[in-house]
Predict the structure.
Amino acid sequence: MPFAFSPPKRTLVIILLAITALIFLLSTQATVTMFGLFKKYDVHLSPEVHGRITFAGKPIKNIIVNRMLGCERGRNDKSKTDDNGLFYFPAQSIRSRRPGQMLDETRVFQTIELNYKDKDKDYLLWYTVTEGKTHKNISEKLKQLNCDLTMQEEKYYFINYEYPEFTHNVLSICRWESI
């Protein structure tokens, strides 16, 4: 079967196809760079946490409080209550490429819990899921966790100042009066 193009025209078509492919590849790389797919972003895992643990109003000292934070990988840290039942965790952030990926909806879970006297019973001091950004109301609440182990776990719907059409949904046994 004879070719539709003569040899010089075939060479020209091949060159044009190669140039077109090269332009496509270069423009795709530019698009990747333009949309930041290889750029790293700050992902806010948790603000500072200040809390107090009591049992029927009496401070519990020397108890381990666990914080688990998750995004791409989980991060765990521990704090120990002092003589007044107070505990503290520093703010946590990571650098990640994930928020720059197409169609990414980064979610960060925050869990703070402890086990007291009963190895099978964990007390959930705080659980929520955020999109990895700083939120005023979450920061305010985590600076004043008042956790009495006799309180029942409840679901809270806090105002989301940054996105008022949504709420911050939190599970906790804590309350939010001043420490």
Observations:
- The chain has two helices and 13 strands.
- The domain at 41-175 is CATH 2.60.40 (Immunoglobulin-like).
- The radius of gyration is 26 Å.
- The chain has a mean pLDDT of 81.
